[in-house]
Design brief:
The complex is a heterodimer. The longest helix of chain A is centred in the first third of the chain and has 13 residues. The N terminus of chain A is likely disordered. In chain A, strand 11 and strand 12 form a beta hairpin. By secondary structure, chain A is mostly beta strands. Chain B has ten helices and eight strands. In chain B, helix 7 links the parallel strand 5 and strand 6. Chain B has a four-stranded parallel β-sheet, covered by helices on one side. In chain B, strands 6-5-7-8 form a four-stranded parallel β-sheet, with helices on both faces. Chain B is an alpha/beta fold. The N terminus of chain B is likely disordered. The chains are: A mainly beta, B alpha/beta.
């Protein structure tokens, strides 16, 4: 190996560009024969064999497994969030079944079913051909609030979601039953998307709204203890109980190598903490990617993601405002190595905390990861975290080793 | 800073609506070159991927969504070459014309006879394409078939231009006949020569040129070369002889250089697509260069 490496270092001479050769004399008989052969060629030549078409109309299926091993310096540490590794030892983070298919010329179906916990993450029907650049989605939807919420576990650059994601959106995805209408703005010389969505925040047998910022609740008397408790309601009383979301997303190719995406998101709905109180959530996200396509070295890329959230929640006689976000830098060294850095914090700005346990007054975390991808379908990731939050004695540390595999059809990746 | 902003302006404007009549968007630059050749002034043709880029691993950039959204005709390679990114563009592009079944949806692979079909496809065999090897754009014969399909689709979408398209296609075929005769004549002395490739992406070119693939540096498609595999291949080629090592511009070259030197054969980094190297702007440029490099051995 050492010999090979030394030879690689020595043998760096570039091949000289080939000089233009002289025009060859064309044999007219040969040209005539080629023309005759060509005339006999059928438009679509018979194939040497075609693969079975028996499954051609079945949905494209894939299973994605995430399995992890963790060590924490202290058993009291920052909660890692949904599908993350939250305790020392081995954890099965997720086993997702993804299916996608065209229903007919008008509709498409996408499913993400999480077998760990047996829950639907997303079951959406999308239109394929509405006029005016419109696209309608309906079903159990993962909402496109910001960048991270849309990404599934296997698309994360770390084994855990960001602190802001868990605090402001959901322990898993901000998702729920509802409908979404989006429009790709015509006559704009760059990518510009406007989207509105309405979700039902009622608690519907495993398909309820998954959100840490919104929900339809009421105060009930606990029949056992006689105490008043806040419970999630399984019905809604009117439009004021629904969750409304909007997003504006713009993207530009700054050069052949640089792409910029900027998004603004907002959500308005009932608070999940106090009946008949409201909550609002705002988000801004930015993504910049550099991939040197113009120099031909397209295996390398650097991406920067920044997301920031601001939330106002009504509480009796007061309001609570908290905010937070993260900055993530990812460096794709080659097709087989991907490194990432994330720094993040969340903070109670003013007013009382609406949930001391899940939303401490302040918290911060720094993470480093290095992933090795033997192929496009498997990955091993090593990650180090250090973090601290209100209520802990001192910063804690953690190490994670994660294995991820995808078996089945090759899914397409959003930008 | 002012200079940097000024340099961005052409790129920003390039994202905007295309100027000519029919808007043809292709995944690979070769198909854009063919569409421009056959469509002439009646079409504007634009490729989503650069010729120097590995088309397996393109990003579904939002700017591509806009291009697909505004296209009258989408020509793509198929055989799962673009499976990692094209479905996103089709879904988000919300353009019924270029959706499967639409008049502007042209899967170029339906016009050719795929080689190396995997009847029992399994990922233990590497990143295989069940429907067949997707790199048929490396053969002039296959591009002729794609060009014919593009002509037919342009005629269907723009019947008023039938005469133009047919005349231009006839001229294209005449030139291709002439160039093929020239290329074949120059390649004749190389018939049966033995080739090692980096990735198994050259079968169509090798068949067309009469060359013989004896191995690949990747032990399986998409799997990085291992010392054991490469050593075994080297021993085999030393025993049987080797004339060329061939690869695309976007694969790493260090191992290929070492292997080629040890095997006593030249390494040829061939332009597999239009735009793979500066100055290669048409399919004629591409095959001229390929033939030149093969015949010169460098």
């Amino acid at each position: 190996m050492a010999t090979l490496v030394s030879r690689l270092l020595i043998l760096t001479a570039l091949l000289a560009p080939a000089p233009a050769s002289a025009e060859a004399e064309v044999d007219t008989d040969l040209a005539a024969a080629i023309a005759a052969d060509r005339a006999e060629q059928p438009d679509a030549p018979p194939s040497s064999g075609t693969p079975s078409t028996a499954n051609a109309l079945n949905p494209a299926l894939s299973f994605i497994l995430d399995f992890g091993l963790a060590w924490f310096s202290d058993e009291h540490h920052i909660a890692q969030g949904g599908h993350a590794i939250d305790q020392g030892g081995f954890t099965l983070q997720g086993l997702e079944l993804a299916a996608t298919a065209s229903v007919d010329p008008y509709l498409r179906f996408d499913l993400a079913f999480q077998l760990v916990g047996m829950e639907i993450e997303e079951a959406a029907v999308s239109t394929l051909s509405l006029p005016l650049n419109l696209l309608l989605r309906a079903g159990y939807l993962i909402t496109p609030f910001g960048r991270e919420n849309r990404k599934h576990l296997h698309q994360w650059r770390f084994n855990s979601p960001s602190l802001a994601h868990s605090r402001f959106l959901s322990e898993e995805h901000l998702s729920g039953l509802g409908a979404e209408l989006s429009m790709l703005l015509p006559h704009v010389p760059w990518y510009s998307l406007v989207l509105v969505e309405v979700l039902d925040p009622a608690n519907r047998k495993g398909l309820g709204l998954r959100s840490t910022s919104f929900g339809h609740v009421a105060v009930r008397t606990d029949p056992d203890s006689g105490e008043l408790v806040v419970t999630r309601e399984d019905n809604i009383d009117g439009p004021e109980d629904l969750l409304y979301l909007a997003r504006l997303e713009n993207s530009l190719d700054l050069t052949d190598d640089w792409t910029l995406v900027v998004g603004l998101s907002g959500a308005w709905g009932p608070s999940p903490y106090v009946p008949d109180n409201r909550a609002t959530l705002y988000g801004v996200d930015l993504y910049v990617k550099w991939r040197p396509l113009s120099s031909g070295d397209d295996a390398m890329a650097i991406g920067l993601t920044v997301e920031y959230f601001l939330r106002d929640t009504q509480v009796p006689g007061d309001s609570s405002r908290d905010h937070g976000g993260y900055l993530q830098l990812e460096f794709q060294v080659s097709r087989h190595w991907l490194c990432a850095l994330r720094v993040e914090s969340t903070d109670l700005w003013h007013g009382p905390s609406v949930d001391d346990k899940r939303m401490p007054n302040w918290q911060w975390r720094g993470s480093l990861s290095a992933a090795f991808l033997p192929t496009h379908f498997s990955m091993i990731r090593l990650q180090y975290d250090t973090g601290h939050q209100h209520g802990l004695h001192e910063p804690t540390h953690a190490l994670f080793l994660q294995l991820e595999i995808a078996a089945g059809s090759h899914g397409a990746h959003t930008f | 800073m002012r200079l940097a902003l000024a340099s961005m302006i052409p790129t920003l404007l390039a994202v905007g609506p295309l100027q000519a009549g029919l808007k043809v968007v292709t995944t690979l630059p070769d198909y854009a070159a063919l569409a421009a050749e056959i469509g002439g002034e009646r079409v504007s043709a634009e490729a989503l991927v650069k010729g120097s880029q590995d088309p397996h691993f393109a990003d579904a950039r939002p700017s591509m969504i806009i291009k697909v959204n505004r296209a009258d005709l989408l020509v793509f390679n198929g055989l799962s070459l673009e499976i990692g990114w094209l479905p996103v563009l089709l879904k988000q592009g919300r353009n019924a014309v270029v959706q499967p079944g639409g008049p502007g949806h042209l899967d170029a692979s339906t016009t050719i006879a795929p080689r190396e079909i995997q009847r029992n496809a399994d990922r233990s065999k590497g990143d295989v394409h069940a429907g067949g090897n997707p790199h048929y754009f490396t053969s002039p014969d296959e591009l002729r078939r794609v060009a014919r399909a593009i002509r037919d689709r342009l005629v269907a979408l723009d019947p008023d231009g039938r005469r133009d398209y047919e005349q231009r296609f006839t001229a294209f075929e005449r030139k291709l006949d002439h160039k093929t005769a020239e290329w074949k004549q120059r390649l004749a002395p190389l018939q049966g020569q033995r080739v090692v490739v980096y990735h198994k992406s050259w079968i169509y070119l090798l068949e067309w040129a009469g060359l013989k693939r004896v191995g690949a540096l990747e032990p399986k498609p998409g799997i990085p070369p291992s010392s054991a595999h490469v050593s075994k291949l080297l021993a085999q080629t030393r025993e049987q002889g080797l004339h060329f090592v061939i690869q695309e511009v976007y694969h790493p070259t260090r191992l290929s250089r070492v292997f080629a030197e040890k095997a006593g054969a030249p390494l040829l980094i061939l332009p597999s697509m239009v735009g793979a190297r500066p100055g290669i702007e048409t399919v004629w440029d591409k095959f001229d260069k390929i033939v030149e490099m093969l015949t010169d051995g460098r």
